[in-house]
Amino acid sequence: MPQWRRKPIPHKKPMTAKRLMNPVPDVYFDSRTLDSFRTGYKSDTLPTRTVTVKTGQKALFDKETGEILGNIPSKIFYDVYGVDVPTEISPTLVSLGEGGMARQNVVVIYTIQPEGASPAGYVAASAHIDLFSVDSTGEDNWEDFLVGQATTGRGTAQWTKGKVFDPNRKYFVQTVLNRGSDAEIRGERVPLPTLLADLDIDSDNNAGWKPDGTHNLPKRDTLEDQIEDQVGRPGKVLKANLVDTDGDKVPGYADGIDRNGQEGDGASEPFYPLVFELGGSVFDPARATVSFQYAGSNPAGVEKVVSADETVSYTLAPGALRLWIKDGQFSRKVADIAQGGDYVVPDKAYPLSWFEPVAGPKGWTLFVEGVRGVTGAEEKKITLTVDPDGEGPLAAVEGDLVLVTSIFAGLVPDYNHDRIIDEEDRARAAQGDIYYFWINDDDDEGETGGDDIPLPAMSSQESRRDCDNFRIDGVRDLIDFFPVALDIKTLLGIFQPNVYEYRLKAATENLKVVFPELTTETVENYLIDVETARTVALKQTFPVPQDKWPTNGAYNIAARQGLSTMLTTASTQDASSVVLLEGVKSGQASLVLEVFDPSGNKVFSNSLNLSLDGVEQMFRHKNLIQFALPDLSPQPPEPGTEWGELDRLDVPLNCPDKECLDVLDEDFIFVHGYNVDGQQARGWQSEMFKRLFRSGLRSRFWGVTWYGSKTQQLNMFTINFRINARNALHTAPNFRNFLNDNMQGKSSIASHSLGNMLTASALLDPGEPLTASIGNVFMIDTAVALEAFTGEIEGGGDPDCPGGPRCPGTDVIYAGEDASSVSSAANPMINPKWYDYEKKLGSSEWYKHFDAELSIGGKPDARRSLTLRGRYADLNKIGATFYNFYSSGEEVLGTHYGDLAAFENGSEFVVDGGRNAWTLQEKLKGRMWFGLGSSNYGGWSFASPYVVVTSTGTISYLNNAMPLAIANQLTPTQLRTQPFFGLGQASPLTEPGGSDWAEIHRDQLLAEAIPAITLPSGGPGGKDMDIKLFDKNVFNMQDTFTSGWPQVRIDKGDTRWKHSDLRNVAYLYVYKIFKKMANSMGVTQ
User: Fold this and answer.
1) Based on the domain organization, do 301 and 328 belong to the same domain?
2) Separation between Cα atoms, residue 526 and residue 1034, nearest integer Å
């Protein structure tokens, strides 16, 4: 053979043919069978024969003779090529993902040398790329091959993305030319380096939860891997860690970490597992490092902030995510894991020894925490970067990428119950705060029906409780439904409701739901807008199921349709849709929203923590009935009876002060009025609490029960106002003691009707000092004479008197001594029997005749105190702001004009339904011989006989026979010892010791024998309270606080605000008065 001179690049070389002695198989030619073996020989033992051939010749042997056949011409000159096939891989390091699948195309680039067109360049018959692997034992295995796209010059072949490589094997590629031919050429074996850097999270959101509430590891299947980094997909959807798991008022992102003293287990919800797996031919676990690129929020940046009002909040460092080496339910250190902490700092390289291999031999698990909603595509990304040999020559490689979408998707109630669902409520819902509400256990009806007394649970067939039916019981019932906003627009965009199934669930079936077509922009309308309320009141209620509504049955279909329609609407509007919930069962449970994929896998879940109970478990209660007049034999509290419920002085079971009401260290006390027994008081107190609660109340609420129902008949009406007025006066000192002992901060008191006498006496009468701090006093429909606050008023406080068509003439106030003023129709509070008599003769003025008198023992004469006039005039005494809420449309406190004959015989009291009852019982004092409706002594009665001593003798006048002129000449001195009015059973007043008797019987005499000569403060005359109060604190409820009016009243032509409309009429129509009271305290609205 000729000698070749080596050159750097293979090239073409001409060569001259030579002879060659060569042993060849003894093969014979047959024209029929072509080449054949001699019979009797096996292929591996063929005999050989040495022959001389030239280049290009073939030796053919005759089958019969064994001689060489023919003389095949030979070539003299040949082109000989020195061929090489350098091969390289792109990328130089093949990144592997889930299951060893290549993350991108693997391209083999080969160059057939010499390059160029024939004859200068070498042209192969074929080009193939063989793939070999070597396992850990060194065994060599052929795996696969590719067909190159070029047979000359530069060519490529590729395995497409997804080609599977075993990360535990080493791989090589080899280019093969002219496979199987005499001219087969194989290039050098070239290593195909692999690096497995797989990152997995539950990207298809169907891994589910373990029984202990922690999250399952990702399934790591093909579908999950395909979608984990797809643009436009959310990847793993996780709830931002805002929930206060352990109830310490610290959001999850600031809890369970060694910042601000919040370390400890169980302080945060579990996090979401993130699994990474490493391997491949270049991976060196002892030297490799990993880093994670993500929008990290440094937990060391959490700061506790205390505002001026002592509100505590926690700041967050920028970023949306955190990676930890511990799950959320465990206490964590905020330091970098390189410093012994638990936090994985973004973009920092860590050796694998700092991670605990918990997912497999070459796998590790981290935990992802979302701390705020993501705002952009970059914030969703978590990227794994691996340096396979650490400080070795290989460069770090960006490995796998997963997407994570941290969101807030919440069920948001009106936590501060101001009829608005806003960001403050949203933050509390995110924190997992409990929402407290009552079960709908009363019996409302229409716009004005119902006594509001909580009812016991019983079988549904017998129950009158509203929560036991499947409807809303009129607009009056709407106050017993609470709104919850479904703040899920982001969630609906991720899990479209036409693909995914949404379920509302309540494990204990403690709720019913209404779909009212409201949003957070219109949420309060069902309580304050007439048209909306009347529309919503026609809606059906549906029990919230334990799992889901069945697909059959009209009722279930309607429920499903209601939810579906709401979700469809919610996905297209900016404001969150709102549902209304009705409490059915007591207890702490949750309203749950769950989302399921088409295969039935739960992909998302969130809940609203609820606490439901009877409304009386949400406020405090004091029972004062037993402190009424002893001779009435009042009884201690006995639940379910007229004697009322037991005291509840401690923190309410279902309304903790701070968590439920966000109390501003204030108290709100409600005192019911006249004709209310111990059970009816429950209804009043419950409804007042509900209405104030829905108006933003931030004070501890107290209901006070007192004995204002003595002589009540058939639970309907009470025939003796006077005895209950005495009870109010007699109970006042105990009410004051209660206030002193229990009011913790500045307090507000709202009293209704005769309850205002109890309150005013407790606050303003002499006696034990009032130490409780009173900020506001709301007098509503006050059944107390104006003169008790203002003193005597011309015309009795009637806005049409004196001088009006029904009260002609003038009304001069009697100043005492011999001053002349005459009773007349100019004051409608005067009994017509006394018209033209001088006022000094009347029982209401008798106290003035003792102005300078001293009783036995030198004390002021107690008969001087036999008047309510000015008794409560010193409103500045306690530093409180007083409000008078009166109604010009009052019926009970309305003004009576004209003749009283029909009332004096009692007939009108039976048929009149209480109209003008207060003024009538005052004008009839002393005139009712049997005591029905008023009293039979004092008042407007006449003394009979009345004895006058003259210079000519003694004259005795019977039955008011004294001439008017003579009567008017009687002097105060005469009247002190012989009143012109009939004393009756009060005759001891003029006897020795009369002052002491007056002191003992003062309350009785004021209630029964001394008539008011002004209208009541809560009726049409209430405007005159501006004599004592600023105009801004005197309100005609009928003009100021109405918002529409019940249709049932309008149909009757009656638009008056009546005596008990504060409670009777639906909140919808009277909410403004409750808003006024709430706004006068600590709420902002």
Assistant:
1) yes
2) 29
